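Input/output pair, single chain:
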Amino acid sequence: MPSITYQLAAEAAPLMPGGGWTVRAYTVAREECAALEHPDGRCIKISPARREGYVRAQVAYPDTSYHLTEADSPRTEMRADRGGRALEEAVRTKLLPVYDETYPEVLAANEKARKHAEARAALADHLVSVVPGAEVTRSEPSPTVEYRKRGTIERVTAQVLGDGLNIVTFRYVDDEATTAVMKAYGDVLRRTAPAPDGRSGNAREDAR
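Output:
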C-alpha cells in the first residue's frame, strides 16, 4: 500500500503549476517519503512531520556552493488528512514563490563553478604537459614534500590554483632545480616584504 506521503504527492502532482510534475518514493531513516519532481530539476520533498498525522513539504536544491540562507529553503507542514489539493496549494503559495526565484540562481552559480573547474583542470593538464615527470590526480591529498637522504627533494605535491581538486605532482626534482626555486621564492619574499614605513620592497627601491 502506498505511503500517505506518496498518496498526497500523487494527488498534488497533476494540480501543480506548469505541469510535468511526477512522483518518486524514497526512504530516509526508515521513513517513507515522496518527492514531487519537475523535468527542469526542481524537487519538493514530502516527509512525515514530527507531529502525529502531519506531513512536511520542503524545497530541495542540487549540490551547490551557492550560499543558501534559511529563507531560501522554505518548508511548511499540514495535516495529512487535508488531501493532495491542500498540499498543492501549500506548495504553490508558500514554497514556489521563493523556490522559483532562487533555483535559477543556484543553477547559474553551479554552471559558473563548472566552467571554473574546467579551466583549473585545463591549467593542470597544461602544466603536466610542459613539465617533464609531472603528473596530475583529481583528488584532494594533503600537500607533501618527500625527501631522500641528505636533503634531496624526491617528490613535491603542488595544488594548482589552490582548489584542492587538481593536484599536480612533480617527481625527482634535482638539486639545481631546488636551488633555483628557493632563490626565486626568496626574491619574491624580499620584493614583497613591507618596508618600515609600511610600503613594499618595490616601493622602497622606487623611492631611491
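The longest strand covers residues 22-28. The chain has four helices and nine strands.
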